[in-house]
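User: Can you predict the 3D structure for this chain?
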Amino acid sequence: MPPLPPVTKTLILICTAVFCLQTFVPQSLTLWLALWPVGSGLFGPWQVVSYAFLHGGLFHLFFNMLGLWMFGSELERVWGQKRYLQFLLAGALAAAAAQMAVTAMTGSQNPTIGASGALFALLLAFGMLFPNRQVMLLIPPIPMKARTFVVVFGALELLLGFMDRGDIAHFAHLGGMVGGFLMIRYWRRQAPFGGRRR
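Assistant: Here is the predicted structure, written as structure tokens:
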């Protein structure tokens, strides 16, 4: 296994450290760093980024960090540190915007936490850059091409977004994918950002 590139490694360490802090002061960190709905009275502008460093449990942290390692490591090597960070930020911000829109429409007052929105942006980018790469699902262990993997997960998130009334922010995941897609289009100078570079 190749060594982790620096940004991916640093983000995994930060998220793990913050999760450890959550075990000691969970209410304080959630109050200040989670993404609260705008009308809740607890919203702060920094939360559109800080929420991505919090996680709701060990499995939530594990699967997000596993995805960051699986998809983020290679994308960081391809793009370099600066562009990789820009992409992650775009995914996190787009996921936050989507979730704030959903909470505004539904009247929910629940906070949102987790790096899943940025992770879904990475997933989409991996499928766009390496569409024929084989990806193995964990449960069930089924191999499929990366582009199929992206389509399946995107469709599931859309379906669950309308069906599930639980604690998972499915539309934030979709928002992350949209943000990632738009970022790649912007870098390529494709619509809606103008003509292709010559």
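Helices lie at 6-22, 26-33, 47-50, 58-79, 81-106, 116-129, 146-163, 170-187. The chain is about 65% helix and 5% strand.
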